[in-house]
Amino acid sequence: MNHTLESLRKELDRINFQLLNLIAQRGSIVKEIGEIKKKQSVNKFDPIRERKMLDQIIEHNKGPFSDDTVRHLFKQIFKASLELQQEEHHKTLLVSRKRRPLDTVVRIGDEEIGGNNDPIVIAGPCSVESEEQVRKVAQVLKQQGLIFLRGGAYKPRTSPYDFQGLGEQGLEILRKVADEFHLKVVSEIVNPANLNSSVEYVDVIQIGARNMQNFELLKAAGSVQIPVLLKRGLSATIEEFLFAAEYIVSRGNNQVILCERGIRTYEKWTRNTLDISAVPILKKESHLPVIVDISHSTGRRDILDAIAKAALAAGADGLMVETHPDPAVALSDANQQINLTTFRELMKEIDRYNRLNTVKSDG
Amino acid sequence: MNHTLESLRKELDRINFQLLNLIAQRGSIVKEIGEIKKKQSVNKFDPIRERKMLDQIIEHNKGPFSDDTVRHLFKQIFKASLELQQEEHHKTLLVSRKRRPLDTVVRIGDEEIGGNNDPIVIAGPCSVESEEQVRKVAQVLKQQGLIFLRGGAYKPRTSPYDFQGLGEQGLEILRKVADEFHLKVVSEIVNPANLNSSVEYVDVIQIGARNMQNFELLKAAGSVQIPVLLKRGLSATIEEFLFAAEYIVSRGNNQVILCERGIRTYEKWTRNTLDISAVPILKKESHLPVIVDISHSTGRRDILDAIAKAALAAGADGLMVETHPDPAVALSDANQQINLTTFRELMKEIDRYNRLNTVKSDG
Amino acid sequence: MNHTLESLRKELDRINFQLLNLIAQRGSIVKEIGEIKKKQSVNKFDPIRERKMLDQIIEHNKGPFSDDTVRHLFKQIFKASLELQQEEHHKTLLVSRKRRPLDTVVRIGDEEIGGNNDPIVIAGPCSVESEEQVRKVAQVLKQQGLIFLRGGAYKPRTSPYDFQGLGEQGLEILRKVADEFHLKVVSEIVNPANLNSSVEYVDVIQIGARNMQNFELLKAAGSVQIPVLLKRGLSATIEEFLFAAEYIVSRGNNQVILCERGIRTYEKWTRNTLDISAVPILKKESHLPVIVDISHSTGRRDILDAIAKAALAAGADGLMVETHPDPAVALSDANQQINLTTFRELMKEIDRYNRLNTVKSDG
Amino acid sequence: MNHTLESLRKELDRINFQLLNLIAQRGSIVKEIGEIKKKQSVNKFDPIRERKMLDQIIEHNKGPFSDDTVRHLFKQIFKASLELQQEEHHKTLLVSRKRRPLDTVVRIGDEEIGGNNDPIVIAGPCSVESEEQVRKVAQVLKQQGLIFLRGGAYKPRTSPYDFQGLGEQGLEILRKVADEFHLKVVSEIVNPANLNSSVEYVDVIQIGARNMQNFELLKAAGSVQIPVLLKRGLSATIEEFLFAAEYIVSRGNNQVILCERGIRTYEKWTRNTLDISAVPILKKESHLPVIVDISHSTGRRDILDAIAKAALAAGADGLMVETHPDPAVALSDANQQINLTTFRELMKEIDRYNRLNTVKSDG
Description:
InterPro entries (chains A, B, C, D): Aldolase_TIM, Chorismate_mutase_GmP-bac, Class-I_DAHP_synthase, CM_dom_sf, CM_II_prokaryot, DAHP1/KDSA, DAHP_syn_2
Pfam families (chains A, B, C, D): CM_2, DAHP_synth_1
GO molecular function (chains A, B, C, D): 3-deoxy-7-phosphoheptulonate synthase activity; chorismate mutase activity
Distance between the termini of chain A: 52 Å
EC number (chains A, B, C, D): 2.5.1.54, 5.4.99.5
Helix content of chain A: 40-55%
Oligomer: homotetramer
Number of domains of chain A: 2
Protein name (chains A, B, C, D): 3-deoxy-7-phosphoheptulonate synthase/chorismate mutase
CATH architecture of the largest domain in chain A: Alpha-Beta Barrel
């Protein structure tokens, strides 16, 4: 390296430190401004002021950078400064692990989901069709030592002419049968107006994929004192998923379970594409428990055991699976529900896997 | 062609006709069964009976087709037969052009959307922020001879910490300013509970993309007597979009405007990917008016005029566009709103295009 | 606004100007370093040096910004500085309009595509099947005053057992028939090894969607002196599409036509989703002509006229469409090719549209 | 159930059996025709004949089914009949497990991939940059008991101005270092013309995602006698992936390893979306070994261990991972490569997981 290059680089280093120094000074001032604004209850982000500053700076730009580049660089600096002011920042969402490093454990009576607890399995028919149907499933759950009985009473269906669920009658059946077998009920609620009354029947409120950005429902779910199982939207980003959870938690209900259930892609051999990477990412970004719906994410019975194990290996706190005494005659999702015999075999596989990989209790 | 091939083909033809004959007989019988069931109010689709028939058939299968192939063929035949029974069939959705060949014209006071009417433009800010802001926009709309003022009062936002709209106060501002300028108000409603009261303020209820499968909201919108502008969901198929409209129409409100607003894809240089093919497909499949939201579908100001013309060329009955007196300081979607000067230029381009292509009045 | 806020803001403004000043100084030094390196033929980007600088800076960071934020800000500053050095920068791609503001006009004999020329139509069968078939199409093209005959001789097919095209024999047929009718041949080449010899037969080399990132083929196409029609990849971003074109142009062949042909999405009612926004974006970002393949992008015959007009309204320099004397018996893409009668009607619609919208000759 | 319904159902059953009988007769005749055609070397699918048959049938249709429905049903019957004729049918692709129920084991010298063998790990830098770099990696591989060294010599890069790899020189480095440590070389070839000569240097030819449908390259890879690692395309369906493998196997090279590497979706927090369901589906549909590229599929270092375990749990026969002595200065994919320390930790995690789950040797 020749002399000139050497000295130019030294010059660069000097400038770098000056820049660092100035940026730090800038940050401190912006922070101070933020505190003043806080006292005055003024919105922290002031776009008019920002635009004026940018205009002034651009006016003074004499190169060598283009105005666009200068504008970009200062927007980055402004943004960083603004983030210093904002408690609402992404890093500090209530659902964020940066805000709360410890795992949230969701408690349903004596049962726990998340943290160091063994992975749970939530199972049951897609739709509640009759008391007999639910009882047959509940018996098998009990035999398998499972606790969580799922079943749809309010069914959000693409067509208004498809079976829409038994409604409140469905919830009554679930409650009755669950009490008989000492099980917990997980069931979807679709109307904010029904949330309060549903608490009589269900132990965990499910919010379905199509309602992940039904913000009115999320707000209502944040106001009840009962755990919420929130499914990722059909095409929601992981970030949008966390924001949806934040709607619930920020209203006061921190008992939220995140459920990855596959996303919509071009692939036709599966109903959805299970985004397995979402599991460890959600676990890293958030302290909430994460489960995987292996039925909706694949829509295929023939790969359930592989997917169940993959979900657990990826760190899921539990699984959700649809089972029906006679899937061929199910009123919804007939193709993806497994019968009770297959369900027992799947549970055997899952148990065997869990016994081998007692990862959590190790830690 | 040799003799054997010739005679084999004749044999094939004979079998084809016999098959046709049998399938027709089958259809007639199934139809008869359907009528009996109708009288008895029994659900037409009987999966247990279907499974038994399939089992019996497979039992008798001696090849050369595999059981899978035979099952597939008979499922197709069963399905065709069932469709003969069902009024609810896709082809006969209320929103389908097969059910109603003539264009539905949506009427808002003296104004009309769809049919042979000239394309309309719905414009206004993303969010209602103040009376002054809305009035500035309304003035320009009036100057341009436009009728439909849009503005968000309830804003469904990804983050609970983003500006959520002024709520009912926003609706009041819209109504007041619209009345001043004799404009019609288009605004989004997000909670079924607010639908009835909103009718006081808005002339067209908008249902947003995130709520396209909020079926409770759709049902509520089907029960009011006021036009509904339904936006396609972020990742909804065209079929799901039509089914969502069917939820509204089947409840008694046939004044529905479909709005293509772009779908979510991997492309990063646009906010969404405008599915331009959806416009002629929706026009063919349905009798409802179709408009295009050129702001959300692109998220880019620099291609609005090209996209506006493309939407009209594809057969859209109207456009929706976001404009703001000062986009840089807008409380939402600052990047995609155009200022009022650019809006006037865009309107000039659109007017020029419409004058050249007076396609509809020709027909 | 109180006194403190006022003075803090003044302080901020002062720091902003100091930052601007330092960043500009930094830019000038980096530029100087770049010139020295250029003389020494050293790669301009030196990741080790960059990492050392970052490490040093972070070491000196005493807050209030986190190390991550400081690292991010300096990376932005480094990147901007590096871009000052690089001619290869995105903004200055050879295909970029920033590099060449004037439209590139592609010349094929006396014919021209792009610039102020009227939109062209490239038509013909998906696959060349026989001389008779191609002649029937060529006759209609001639009657319609069209110049560009397309037809696949080498067919990239998903399955190895599908019809793979007639190969060189297909090219011979195209050339023979085209010469008879004074037409120009557009045909796909799939192997770099065949590019040189194909020049005998074809006037425009087509590079298909599946080969958009077959960089060896792109490089080879950059080395011949014959126009190239480059199709966007199945799931290529617009940016990747431009980079693929850059591979060709940077090798010395600037006669490139960009062809939007739809992208892969979840939607099932169209074969692909035509990304209509790509047309004006490509026209803005690049000086190359842009055409739209209305057959592949939709895969539906029933919306071709609407889509043709939308493409032209969006600013396309031409259209590509598949037509076959008897689509029902076509050896490939039977569903999307139109017969010659429908093709004539489509051309009538397109002509009528173009007559009404003589946009380009106005300017 | 009343008398009429009962008797109508009996009638239906009778017709079902007659239909079955006729369809079987039809199948036998078509099979016979197929054999005659085979002797005459005539293409089995005759679209003109099919259309004539359909036309005749429709002519005779007197309801109750619409012509469309009848056409659909007969097309299904024709298709099933045709499939009886075709050896090339999907179910009987050479890569299909229906064709070959036993696992294919790919052999590289004494090493084996697939079948009951323990999962393998292929590791190394994204690009070969220098002999030192490759040696550092090779040492760690050796220490870890690994056999397969990967490294890119020909790099397909989005931009023509990005580092394009060292080419043949890179292959020489790989070979030299691999020989030193008794490792096997896996490296990508991008040009059919280079395939034959590359055999001197590499033990497994990699075909990259961007070339999955570069059919000329696939054909060339089918003609060499060396294993091929085929990566799934950026947006390829699982079906297209299998067809791509079929191109290679049908040319005579059955030593193919399938590599899932993530697909392109809208999600932004990962580089691609790992389609974990593809692993068990590929294992069920095909007898070829399946591995997972955990670096490209996620693009994130922080979830590699979770994803590695998920891939193995899903049934993968191996993993591919990128590691670099100093990722920060890597000439490509700097963000997703892990350094050698992290690599050692990852291998420890993977080993631990494999020891716990000795699933394969159990069977």
